[in-house]
Amino acid sequence: MFSPWVLLAVILGYLLLLFSVAYAAERKERQGKSLVSNPYVYSLSLAVYCTSWTFYGSVGKAANAGLSFLTIYLGPTLMAALWWIVLRKIVYLSRENRITTISDFISSRYGKSLGLSILVTIVAVVGITPYLGLQIKAVMTTFSLLSGRPEGSHAAGWFISALLGIFAVIFGARRLDASERHGGLVFAVAFESAIKLLAFLLVGFFVTYGLFNGFGDIFGKIQAGPYASLMKLGPGSPVSLLEWTSLTFLSMMAILFLPRQFHVAVVENFSTSHIKKAMWLFPLYLFLINIFVLPIAYGGLLKGGVQSSADYFVLSIPLRFGRPFLALFVFIGGFSAATAMVIVESVALSTMVMNSFVMPTLWDLRAFRNFSAVMLNIKRVVILGCVFLGYTFAVHIGEFYSLVDIGLKSFEAVTIFAPSILLGLYWRGGNKKGAIAGIIAGFSVWVYTLLIPALMRAGIIEPGGFLEFVFQSTLLKPTALFGLEGLDRWSHSLFWGLLLNLLCYVGVSIFTRQSDAETRQAIIFVDSYSPLQFSQTHRPADIAEIEDILGQYIGPAEAREAVDGFLKRNRLNRQSMPREWLLKLREEAERILSGALGPSISTLVFQDRIVLTHDESLLVSNSIRQISRNLRLSRQELAEANRQLALLKEFSENIIESLPLGVATLDESLCVTSWNSGMEKITGMKKAAALNREAERLLSCLEPGLFSRGVREGEVTCTRNFDPQVVLKGHLNGLSGEQKGYVLVLEDITEKKKIEEELFHATKHASVGRLAAGVAHEIGNPLASISSLVQELLTENASSFERESLSTIKQHVHRIARILRNLGDFARLYPRQKVPTDLKAVLENTLSLVRYDRNFRKVAVHADVEDTPPLRIDPDQMQQVFLNLILNARDAMPDGGSLNISVKQVNGSVEMRFADTGNGIDSEVRDKIFDPFFSTKGPTKGTGLGLSICYGIIKDHGGTIEIDSEKGRGTQFIINIPVAA
Amino acid sequence: MKRDIWVLLFGLGVLLFGWPFLTIFQDWLTYYLFIVWIVFIGLLFLTSTFSNREDGGN
Asked: Which residues contact A412 (CB under 8 A, 6 or more apart)?
C-alpha cells in the first residue's frame, strides 16, 4: 500500500513528465523538427481508444463474460482494413473544409446546418459523459485500492480531475483556432499509450509467467475448472454469437465516431500516408495490449479472485502477490489510459460545444475588444466543465456499473452517427431532415433502452407510477421493445436504434427535398473527394490513349495531327515510344487542352481524377463562373444577332416580294425553295403550291422552256402560252457562296417590247420623212418648170408626133407630181389644223367618195358607226387615212368581198375597225406593212406610202394603228384615237 | 483494384471472426481468435506495404 500523498506525488510527477514530453514535442515542432509527424506517433495516438476500460475493464469483462471482451478490439481491427477508403476520405474532407469535430463534419455534409450540429453535440456530450465518468471512476477506484483508503477517493478524484482539466486546457486550448493541430497533446497521448502498453505487458508477463507456467497452464486450468465456459462462445457460454456480432459492430463504429477518435485520427492527422501504416500498427497495438487479458483474468480467478472485482485484477494481483511497485507502475499505466482519454475527449467535446453553442450565440459580439480572449477562456471553462461532468457521473452513477457497461453505452451512443456519416459519404440523396430524423430516432432509442434504465438503477429516476406501468408493458419494455425478447441489451438497443435511425434517415431523405446548399455539399462529400480517385494519377498507357482523350475534346483528326506533329518534331515513332517521351506527349496534350478547357480541367482530364484541392476548386469555380458569364453574354449577343437577322430576313423578303419581277430560288436539283408574289402573277402558281416542286414542271407555261435544254445560266426571252400573252425575259444564275442552287428572275417585257417597236417605227418614219421632204422639194421645183414648158409647147403648133410626145411627158410629169405630193403628205410638209370634228361625218364623206366607184361594185361596205364624242383632229388627214384603208381593202378583194367598218367608243378613246375579207397578209411581211415604200401591190400600182402616211397621221393624233391579219382570212386595221386628243 | 483488396480483406475478417468459424473452432477458440487476429494484422501489413510500393511510397 501507498500513502495517498505518495500516490498524489506520483500522479503529479507523472503529469509533470507528461507536461515535459508535450512541451518538448511542441518546442521541436516550432523548430520545424516535428516529433509528431510520423506514422508511429499517429498510431500510438490512435491508441487513446484503449482507455481504463481496456486497462481494467477488459480483464473484468474476460473474467465475467469470457472472450467477448475481444469484440471491442476486433471491431477496430476489421474497420482498419477499410481506413484507406473511409478514414482517408473523412480526413481529406475535414482538411479541405476545416472541419474539427464530428458535429461539424455531419453538419457540413448536410448543408452546414447549425441545428444538426447542435443535435450531434448534444448526443455526443450526453453519450460520452458516462465514458468520461468511467475514466474518473477507474482512477478513483485504483487510487483507493493502492492507498487502501476508500474514503478519500472522491477528493482524490476531484483533485485528479482538476489536474487533468488543467492539462487539457494548457495543451488543448492554448489557441482558439481549433483547426490547428495540438502536437504536444498528441505526443503526450502517444507517450501515454506506450506507458499503458508497457505496464499491461509487465503485469501480464508477471501473472502468466510469474504466477503460472505460461498460457497453456492457465488455459488448461480454466478449461478444467468451473470457468470453462469462459473460453467458449454461443450456447453454454456467457456470450451469444449475436452479442458477439453486435459488440463487434459497435466497436467498429466507435473507432470512427467517438469524438476523441475523430480528433486524433482526423484533426491531428499530418499525412494520409500515416493512415496506411496505422492500418496495421494500430491493430498490432490492440493485439499486444490484449494478449495478457485472458491470463490476467483467468489467473485472478484461479488465484481466488471473484468475478465482481475482476475489473481491478490488474492492480490487485501484483499487490496481493507482493509486487507493490509493479502495482504502482500498473496504476501509472491505468492512469495514463484514463488521462489520455479524458484530455482528448474533453478537448474534442469542448470544441463541439464551442462551435455549436457558444460561437453562434456570441458571434454578434465579435466586434468587441478581446473577443478572442473571452472565447478562449470560455473554451477552457467548457473543457473543465466536461471533465467535471465526467467526475459527477463517476461519483453519482458510475459505482452502479462495471467499466464495460459504461463504455458500451457510449459506443451505442456514437453508433447513432453511423448512418448519417457513412451513408452521407456515399449516397447523395441523404439530406438534413433525414439526418436529423435518424439521429433523433436513434438517440431516443438509446435514451429509452439504455440511459433511463441506468438512471433508474442508480436511483436517479424513481420507478413507479406511470413510468413503471410503461416499462412493464409488453410493447414498451426498455429491454424488450415491441415485445422483442431474447436479445441481450446491447443487441436489443443496437437493433432498434439502428433500424429506426436508418428508416428515418433514408425515408425522410427520400420524401423530402434537399436545399441547394445541401445538394452542393452532398456533391462535394460524395463525389468530389473520392479518395481512391484522388491519388490515382492516371498515366495514359500509350499514344493511342492520349490521342483518344485529346480527340474527345478537339476532334479525332486534330488530335491525330497534334500527336503526329509531336512525333515528327521529336523524331519518334508510334511503335516504340520511351516512357519519358510518353509523359512529355501527355504534357503536350495537356497544354493543347488547356487552351480549350483551362489548365485545371485539362490536368484533371489527363489525371482522370475528380478530387479537387481547395485551390483547384477555386480555380475550377472561377473558370466555370467565367465560362458562364461569357456564355450569358454570348447568349445576349446571339439573341441580338438573331433579332437583327430576323429583321434583315424580313426586310429582304419584303424587298423580294415587292419587286415587279418574278423571283424564285432553286436548289441543286432545281426544286423551288422560294417563290415571290411576282412569280405567282407570272405563272399563276401560288407560293405554297410551288415550294419544293420541280421548277421545270412549274414553268412549263413558258415557251421556249427554260430548262428544256438543261440548266443554262444567263438570259433568255420567252413568252407565256396562256392569255393574256406576255413576253418575259428570264435570268438564271447560280447562287454564290456556300449555298448551292440557282436564282431565277422573270421580267415582264411586253410593254417594253411594244414601245421599242413603236420607237423603231417612229424613227424610221422620221428618217424617211426627212428624205421625202428633201426629194419633194428638190424635184418639185424643176418639175413645175417642166410642166409649164410642156403646157406652153402644147399650145404651140406642133406635129402630131410632138403633140403626142408632149402629152405623154405631161402625163408622166403629173404622175411625178402626184408622187411628190404624196411624199409631201408623208413628210407632212404642210401644216394641218386640228379642230373638233365629228368622226361619223368624216367617215360618211369618205364613203360617199367611193360609193359610186365602179371598182366597189363587188364590195359590200357595212358601216356600224356609233355616236362618239367629237375628236380634235385634222378632218382632211383623217379622211385620207380612211380613204387609204378603204382603197387598200378594195385592192385586197379584186374578186369582191365585204368591208365592215365600225366606230365606237372604248374607254377613253374611239376605236375604228376596217375589216375586209380579202387575201390577208403573210406574217412575214406584217411587221413591214407600215414601212414607207413597202407595197404588196407591185411597182406599178402603188407608191408604198399609203399606209406609212396613215401610220404617221394617226401617230400625229396620239393614236395607234394595228393590223390583225392572217393569210387567206382577211385583214383588219384597228385605229384608236384618244378622245382628249 | 486497391479499393477491392481492402474490401476483400474486410470481408475476410468479418467472415473469420464470425459465424460459422467461431462455432467450427469452438474447442480452440482462444487460440483460433488470437492466431487469426495476428494473421489478419499480417495481411494488413503486407497489403499496405505492397500498395505503398505501388504508389511509390505515397
From this structure: A127, A250, A446, A450, A490, A493, A494, A497
Sheet holding A672-675, edge to edge: A672-675, A662-666, A742-748, A727-734, A714-720, A702-703
| pLDDT score, position A633 | 66
Interface test with B, best of A240, A243, A276 (most B CBs within 10 A): A276
Rounded Cα distance between A33 and A45, Å, is: 18
Chain A residues near residue B6 by CB distance under 8 angstroms: 81-82, 84-85
- Per the CB < 8 A criterion, the answer to whether A706 and A730 are in contact is yes
Count CB neighbours of A469 within 10 A.
10
The ipTM estimated for the assembled molecules is 0.95
- Alpha helix ranges (H) inside A869-933: 875-892, 923-926
What residues contact B29, with CB distance under 8 A and at least 6 apart?
A67, A231, A232, A233, B22
Q: Give the confidence band of A553 by pLDDT, cuts at 50, 70, 90.
A: low
Looking at the complex, does the CB of residue A78 fall below 8 Å from at least one CB of chain B?
A: yes
Q: How many CB pairs under 8 A join A and B?
A: 87
In the three-class reduction of DSSP (H, G, I as helix; E, B as strand; rest coil), residue A728 is classed as strand
User: Does the distance separating the beta carbons of A535 and B6 come in below 8 Å?
Assistant: no
At A77-117, the pLDDT tens digits run 999 999 999 999 999 888 777 788 899 899 989 988 888 99
Type of residue numbered A690: A
Distance from CA of A232 to the nearest CA of B (A): 6
For A380-408, b/e burial (b = at least 16 CB within 10 A) is bebbbbbbbbbbbbbbebbeebbbbbbbb
